[in-house]
Every structure is written in structure tokens, then in C-alpha cells.
Specification:
The structure holds three protein chains of three kinds. Chain A is mainly alpha-helical. In chain B, the strands form three sheets. Chain B has a three-stranded antiparallel beta sheet with strand order 1-2-3. In chain B, strands 6-7-8 form a three-stranded antiparallel beta sheet. In chain B, strand 6 and strand 7 form a beta hairpin. Classes of the chains: A mainly alpha, B alpha+beta, C alpha+beta.
């Protein structure tokens, strides 16, 4: 049984398990199916109606997204005549890849992580900055004025949130004096989570997260009543699924990041989480899921902003807030506050 | 290669945010520098068809263009027809007409607020407004037998009397609506995002509004207190006590607030009507006398009025008549010319949405692309009503 | 309500945000207002305007119904010496004028409003089919809408 042991070892090794199974592609698919269902059901409950109900009635229609995915797979892929074919067909794939790629940096416990380096804190925001470029390419290559405007809007939104996000992450790096996600999560084991130590950074990062994943009220890129569905207008079939899935994948990755940096990661390490190096990841996933639930709930509460209002919010108020969070972190360090 | 600075956007009929009309917008970046609404996609020649139909057959025809607001259009036509025939409905019928007109005003305003909500992105407001139309449509169904296209008002009175238990149900619905309006306030009308989207957007100043001739809540939100129910009162309005809702700012948020306030005023009117409705017949005595005794008894028993045989080919004397009614979206104007035959010689209806189209051009020049749905929803423009 | 000015509210109006969010959470706990049609049918009461039934023995062939119909849905069909009305349901707008003008109560409106026909030919009904009335099926569950002060509309089993 050498070969089976070898395969099992290979499967559970960090380099294979984290990107592919947990919290990688397989978990991503399951989480996207469940969170979109949750979004529609939560919005429906607030709006006094049922939401998805009939696909598998005993479970309340939770398999609705699988039915939608199957429909997308069978739909015809239409490429517009004047579109730039290579860019049109490649950019959704690359967009989705860059939206999912940062998941490799998330540690599951202090001994189990795919990337063992001192700089894992920077990997997630750095890889996510590449995604909006491909939305711009999407919008341009579709040969449609509404897609073009939508792509430009995504470019503007990137301007709005990126600086804030990086400064908030800087504040957390200063607070914990470390750029490694494993270290940061480890230092939160004494019960003082990041959100308690530096609530300004948490809030600024949270709003920047809403902006980057196009959750309401920052749904500007896909504003349906103004620009049909923004840069994704000409896409059909599974490409459309990839485009919309990319923003949910970004939400998933950023929620995991938020859970590790601000919500204590896998702490507290109670039984049965300390039985196996993989199991603390379940706590991270649960916290990330709760953050995602909160983000998608906002769909039923807010209308959407205009692009110049979102930009003003990002540059005036959020940037000021995140700079204030850095100052708060410096004050905390200066007061000799020992973290972890 | 010529250098083009302006982008021409065709927000045409196949667009989620355009309704049944085409908008040609010239954009300089995000700023609108040219705006042309192109209407007529739903023109069904109502006025011409009316020349081939008899006067009773025109009643459902006239309701169909303005679907959220059928009772007010029906009322306007019936008042003009009664002027031609030289008759007047009994007082109880006038009160019942007012009752249905105000119920219809409430659910038409809810429709407008809901569409405005979805245009700026709040799907919750859309679903709530349309869910809250249901109690009102159920009330109207108890009164008339249909949920939306009532055809309730006929020359000489109305078709049915108040059913049992109607007053309790109506008062319950009014109390429910008042409670819900408070929730609308917190979730949508004074939501900071909504206020940011709608405040100071699409301003129509007082002089401009008067000069270009807009009507309805659009006019009242620009500071001009003009309501046909106060200027040329009809039906039971001279005896009722209500306020005309006026705001000074003239922006989209003011128009939304005027609509919400008008729902409250309509609730006030409904309560007064139900308290003060006089007893008596609901249909003209001279028409009831034309019915056979058996049918008269049947009508008395079921309280559903029957038509005399002359209604199949009403022949009003030669002449012309006009009437004005305050529908939910503004003032409707009817003009009928009769030449003694069963069909009218000329039938003209001027609808409020048709008058408000011109406000698009003045409200949107110099604004941003994202303001188009915000202003569209606030003007409560209903294309089938404008195109007839 | 003449000219009341609204106060300026900045975008970071915290109470506004909290109130909107709180209202959203409050409605997560409210009951729904949807009727699961077609598993559940609504019973609108006895006077709902629906499809028609002709009582051939009462009809006196006065043709008033065909003359007043706003959409020309009723047409008279000649059978031996008399004429009886037939109806095209595609044109019927359920206004009830024909039932209200009939001088002998030969047309009666039922409460049935949702019958599906496989094609246009079935909707053109001669007096023989018209006199059978609409096909009344036994629905699985009927509820009656009642106006309720807390919930707007509440549905009671009938």
C-alpha cells in the first residue's frame, strides 16, 4: 500500500491541499454556491418574499446555484463581431485566476501553510491589484460602449480603494510588527483580536473590501440601471459565470484575510481544533463566512453610490481614516503595548 | 483620423434603465452635454380608436394607457361624458368615486416610488412598494371586482355599492400604510446613500418649471402650489379637507418626498370619505327607471348596478365638453366633441407624462450619467401614458 | 406641508446608516407576504369579475351584449331561428359590461380568472361551449386574503 500512502501524503501536503481543496478551489466552489444562495435568500426575506425555493425544496433551494452553473455551461458562447477575440476570451479566465490566487497565502494553523515566508501579509493585496486591469481589458475588448464605461468605472474604483486598503494593512503590520500572516494570527492568541486593537483599520479595510468586490452600496461597476451590467455585458455562458464569480472569489479571499488579520485567525484553539494541523482552518473558514454573510446582507439595505461619490468617499474620508489608524498603531507601539 | 471628444450613448428601449423610450445622450466623459428623449414606442392610437367605438366602449379604452392609475383617467372621461349628456351623478356616487380615485392614487404613487428605488439600486424598496400595493388592490377588488382595471365609474354614477365590512378593512389598510411609511423613511427615503444620490440632482427651478409646463408632483416639488383638486374641484373634493403638498427645492429628493407625503394626504381623504359618505342611490334615478322591474329588484338585492339598454349606443346631443382631473402623475385633460352619433367625432386626451417629458432635457444637462435613472424615476414618467 | 426645508445630511450620517441597517435586520424576522401560486389558490370572494357562463334558456337574442363589448369579444351565432352569443376569450377583458347590460340575467360572471388554453381555436367558443361555463377545477389549497393591520395581507385557509 505504498502507492496509496504516497498519494495520500501528496494530497495532504500543504502545497497541494491548500490551493486545491481547503481553502482553495473546491472549498471556493462550495462557498460561492452557498453564499450566493444566502445572498438571494437574505434579500428575499427582508423583501417579504421567498427567493430561490424550488430546485431542491427540502433544503430550501440551496442547489439553485448549481442549476444556474449547469445552465451557464450549456449556454452558447457568443463573441461579438468587432471584439478583440484574444483579449475577449482570455481576460475573464485571467481575472478569475488572479482573484483566486491569493488564497495560497492563507495559513490554516501555525504549522500548516502553503507559503512559508516572512511576507505573506503582502501577497493578498498585491495579487488583488492585478485583477482590475483585466476588467479594464474586458470592458475595452467587448466593442460595446456600455462595457467600455463599465471598465473605466472599475479603473476609477480601483483608484478609490487601493490606497486605503494598503494603508490599513500597513497599520496592522505596524501593530503586530510583522509581515507574516502566521505570526499575526499567532500574536492574537491572548484574546485581543486585531479588530479590538485597531478598530479604525478594521473599518477602513472593511469598506475598502466592499469597494473592491462591488458589494452594495459600491455596486458602481455593475450598475444595472445605468450601464446594463457594466464590463460583463457582452459575455454569455460560462464566461459570464467566471466574470461574476471573480468578484465573489475576491470577496472570499479578502474575508479569509480579514478573519486571519482582524478576527484572530484560528484562535481560540479549543478542542477539537488542536487535534490536527488542518482543523484550525475550519475556525478561519467559519469566521470568514460570517464576514461574507454580513457583506452580502448589505444588498438589501442600500442603494448604490455614484462614481464620483464613491471616489470622494475613498479619497477624503477613508484615506483619512486609514492614516489615523496608522497613527493609532504607532501610538500603541509607542506606549509599549506588548502584543502577543 | 478625426478626434472625437463626445461619446454618443444610445440608451435605447433594450436597456434595463430606460423603460419604453429611447434616450440619446452625448457624454463628455461622465458629464451629459446633450440629451434627447425619443418617445412614441408605445403609441397605440387611442384617440383614433376612440372615434370608432361607442361612448361606453371607450371607458376601458381610456383606462389602458395609464395602467397604474386607471381610476383617475376613468373619472376624467366620465365627467366629460356627463357634461355632454347633461346629467350629474348622485352625491353618494361622487363620494364613492373619490374613494376609488384616492385608493388608486396611493397605489400609483407606490408604483412610482418602487420604480425609483430599483433605478437607484435599492431592490428592497421596489419589492416593498409592490408588496404594499397588494392590500390596496385587495380593497379595490372588494369594492369593484377587479384588481387594477376597474371600469367602475359610468355616466350616471358608479357600478357597485360599498360592500359589507369595507370600512373596517379600509381603516386597517390605512393604519398599516402609515406604519410602513415610517419604515420606508428609515430604509430608503432618508438613507444616507439615497440622499446623496438624489439631493440637488435634476433641479427644476420654479420659473423654469412654470415656463416648460410640467404638471403633478414634479411641479409641486418646485414650489408651485397647483392641484386641480383645489383649483377646479370635482366629485366630493369641495367638501373634503386636505393639504396640497409643496416643496421648495425642486430636486429629485423633493419629488420623492412629495409623493410620500401625498400618500399620507390620500389616507386622510379616504378616512374622511368613509366617515361622511351620504346615503342614497349610487346610480342615476332616470337610468334606473329604464330597467325592467325584475332587473331593478336584482340590482337592489346584489347592489350591483345594471345598465339600461341605451348604454349600448349612447347618443349625447351635439356639442363638446372638457374635463380636468388630478391623476397621480399630474393633470389629465379630456376633450370630447360629439356630433349626435354613437361614436365621438373627436376625442383628445392630454396625459401628465406627455407634459413631463420635456423636463428631462432641462433637468439633466450638465449632470452625470448615473443621474439619468435617478431623475427618470423621480419624474415618474410612464411611457405608455405619454404615448397613448 | 408648504415649503418645509430638509436638513442637509452628509454621507457619513451614522444614525442614518444604523437606522437603515436596523430596519433591514428587523424585517429579517417578519413573515412573508407571498402566496405560493399555483400550489395555493387565492379565493377573491363572490363578486370577482372572471369568466362568463351563458344561460341559453334565458337568452332573448337582444344582442345588447355583443354591442356593448369594448373589445368585440362577443359575437352572435345563428342557430335555427334564434341568435345566441359566443365568446373569444382572447379578447375578453373581464370588464363585466355584458353581464351588467343583459336584461334577462343570462350572463353570469364566475370567479375563475386563470384558465390555460392550448391554442387560439379553443378560445373561440360557440354558444354550446359558452353555456358550459369555465372549467372549474378543484384547486389544491385555497386561501382567502384578509387585510391585516400588522402584516398588510394575511391569508386564511378556506
Amino acid at each position: 500500500m505504498d502507492i496509496i500512502q504516497f498519494l495520500l501524503d501528496l494530497l495532504f501536503s500543504e502545497a497541494v491541499f491548500v490551493p486545491l481543496i481547503f481553502p482553495g478551489l473546491l472549498t471556493l466552489t462550495v462557498v460561492i454556491v452557498v453564499i450566493i444562495w444566502f445572498e438571494r435568500k437574505l434579500a428575499a426575506k427582508v423583501q417579504l418574499r421567498y427567493g430561490p425555493l424550488y430546485v431542491f425544496k427540502p433544503l430550501g433551494g440551496i442547489v439553485q446555484l448549481v442549476a444556474d452553473l449547469v445552465k451557464f455551461l450549456f449556454a452558447e458562447l457568443i463573441v461579438p463581431k468587432g471584439a478583440d477575440k484574444r483579449a475577449f476570451l482570455l481576460s475573464p479566465v485571467i481575472l478569475f485566476t488572479f482573484s483566486v490566487a491569493p488564497v495560497v497565502a492563507i495559513p490554516l494553523s501555525s504549522g500548516y501553510a502553503a507559503v512559508k515566508s516572512d511576507l505573506t501579509l503582502l501577497i493578498v493585496p498585491a495579487l488583488l491589484t492585478l485583477a482590475p486591469i483585466f476588467v479594464l481589458i474586458l470592458g475595452w475588448s467587448s466593442d460595446n460602449k456600455f462595457s467600455f464605461i463599465g471598465g473605466l468605472r472599475e479603473g476609477y474604483m480601483m483608484m478609490a480603494y487601493e490606497t486605503t486598503m494598503f494603508v490599513a494593512v500597513l497599520a496592522m503590520a505596524v501593530t503586530y510588527s510583522s509581515l507574516s500572516l502566521i505570526d499575526i494570527a499567532g500574536k492574537q492568541s491572548n484574546g485581543l483580536w486585531g479588530i479590538v486593537l485597531n478598530p479604525l483599520a478594521a473599518f477602513a479595510f472593511f469598506v475598502a473590501m466592499l469597494m473592491t468586490t462591488a458589494r452594495f452600496p459600491f455596486d458602481v461597476t455593475e450598475a444595472e440601471s445605468e450601464i446594463v451590467i457594466g464590463p460583463y455585458t457582452e459575455y454569455s455562458g460560462i464566461y459570464f459565470g467566471l466574470c461574476l464569480g471573480a468578484s465573489y472569489a475576491k470577496l472570499y479571499v479578502l474575508s479569509l484575510f480579514f478573519a486571519v488579520v482582524f478576527l484572530g485567525g484560528w484562535n481560540p484553539l479549543i478542542w477539537p481544533l488542536n487535534l490536527n494541523p488542518i482543523l484550525p482552518g475550519v475556525a478561519v473558514l467559519v469566521k470568514a463566512f460570517l464576514v461574507m454573510l454580513f457583506c452580502v446582507f448589505l444588498r438589501s439595505v442600500y442603494p448604490r453610490f455614484r462614481i464620483d461619490q464613491a471616489l470622494q468617499l475613498g479619497w477624503h474620508k477613508l484615506l483619512a481614516l486609514s492614516v489615523a489608524s496608522v497613527v493609532l498603531a504607532l501610538v500603541l507601539i509607542g506606549l509599549g503595548f506588548e502584543v502577543g | 483620423m478625426s478626434e472625437e471628444r463626445f461619446l454618443e450613448l444610445l440608451i435605447g428601449p433594450q436597456h434595463p434603465g430606460s423603460g419604453h423610450m429611447k434616450i440619446t445622450a452625448e457624454m463628455d466623459g461622465d458629464i451629459i452635454v446633450g440629451f434627447e428623449p425619443n418617445i412614441g414606442y408605445v403609441h397605440r392610437a387611442v384617440e383614433k380608436i376612440a372615434e370608432t367605438k361607442t361612448y361606453m366602449q371607450i371607458i376601458p379604452l381610456v383606462e389602458r394607457p395609464a395602467l397604474p392609475d386607471t381610476a383617475n383617467h376613468n373619472l376624467g372621461y366620465t365627467l366629460a361624458l356627463e357634461k355632454l349628456l347633461g346629467i350629474e351623478a348622485p352625491p353618494r356616487a361622487q363620494y364613492l368615486r373619490t374613494l376609488l380615485a384616492e385608493i388608486n392614487r396611493i397605489h400609483s404613487h407606490l408604483y412610482g416610488i418602487g420604480i425609483h428605488g430599483i433605478f437607484i439600486g435599492s431592490s428592497t424598496m421596489f419589492m416593498w412598494a409592490f408588496a404594499d400595493r397588494e392590500p390596496w388592490m385587495e380593497l379595490a377588488q372588494q369594492l369593484t371586482g377587479a384588481r387594477l382595471t376597474y371600469s367602475y365609474m359610468i355616466p350616471g354614477g358608479v357600478r357597485r355599492n360599498l360592500p359589507e365590512g369595507f370600512k373596517d378593512n379600509a381603516l386597517k389598510a390605512t393604519r398599516y400604510m402609515e406604519r410602513r411609511l415610517k419604515d420606508y423613511d428609515k430604509l430608503f427615503v432618508h438613507n444616507p446613500v439615497t440622499v446623496a444620490r438624489l439631493r440637488d440632482v435634476g433641479i427644476l427651478k420654479k420659473n423654469l418649471a412654470a415656463r416648460i409646463g410640467v404638471v403633478g408632483p414634479t411641479l409641486r416639488a418646485s414650489g408651485i402650489s397647483y392641484d386641480v383638486r383645489k383649483i377646479e374641484p370635482y366629485c366630493a373634493y369641495p367638501h373634503l379637507d386636505f393639504d396640497v403638498v409643496v416643496r421648495e427645492e425642486g430636486d429629485s429628493h423633493a419629488r420623492l418626498l412629495v409623493r410620500v407625503e401625498e400618500i399620507l394626504q390620500s389616507i386622510r381623504i379616504i378616512r374622511q370619505v368613509l366617515d361622511e359618505v351620504p346615503d342614497g342611490p349610487v346610480f342615476l334615478e332616470s337610468y334606473i327607471k329604464l330597467l325592467s322591474p325584475k332587473i331593478r329588484e336584482e340590482a337592489e338585492k346584489t347592489q350591483i348596478m345594471r345598465f339600461p339598454a341605451t348604454f349600448a349606443a349612447l347618443k349625447p346631443p351635439k356639442g363638446e365638453a372638457t374635463s380636468r382631473v388630478e391623476a397621480a402623475r399630474g393633470e389629465v385633460f379630456y376633450y370630447i366633441v360629439s356630433d349626435g352619433s354613437p361614436q365621438p367625432y373627436r376625442f383628445r386626451m392630454v396625459t401628465p407624462s406627455f407634459r413631463n417629458v420635456v423636463a428631462f432635457k432641462y433637468a439633466l444637462l450638465g449632470r452625470r450619467l448615473a443621474d439619468i435613472p435617478a431623475v427618470y424615476g423621480s419624474l415618474d414618467y410612464f411611457p405608455p401614458e405619454a404615448d397613448r | 406641508m408648504k415649503g418645509a426645508k430638509t436638513k442637509g445630511k452628509p454621507v457619513v450620517d451614522v444614525t442614518g446608516h444604523l437606522q437603515a441597517f436596523g430596519t433591514g435586520v428587523k424585517y429579517l424576522l417578519q413573515p412573508r407576504m407571498t402566496v405560493r401560486y399555483p400550489e395555493v389558490f387565492q379565493d377573491f370572494g363572490p363578486n370577482y369579475r372572471g369568466m362568463l357562463k351563458l344561460y341559453t334558456d334565458r337568452c332573448i337574442s337582444c344582442t345588447l351584449c355583443a354591442r356593448i363589448c369594448p373589445s368585440n369579444a362577443i359575437k352572435m351565432y345563428k342557430t335555427d331561428a334564434r341568435k345566441y352569443p359566443g365568446i373569444t376569450y382572447q379578447r375578453c377583458i373581464f370588464c363585466g359590461f355584458c353581464a351588467d347590460i343583459c336584461p334577462v340575467d343570462a350572463l353570469e360572471m364566475s370567479g375563475v380568472h386563470d384558465v390555460a388554453y392550448a391554442g387560439l381555436e379553443e378560445q373561440v367558443q360557440k354558444p354550446e361551449d359558452f353555456s358550459k361555463g369555465p372549467p372549474i377545477e378543484k384547486p389544491p389549497r385555497k386561501v382567502k386574503p384578509m387585510i391585516d393591520e400588522k402584516r398588510g395581507l394575511r391569508y386564511e385557509r378556506v
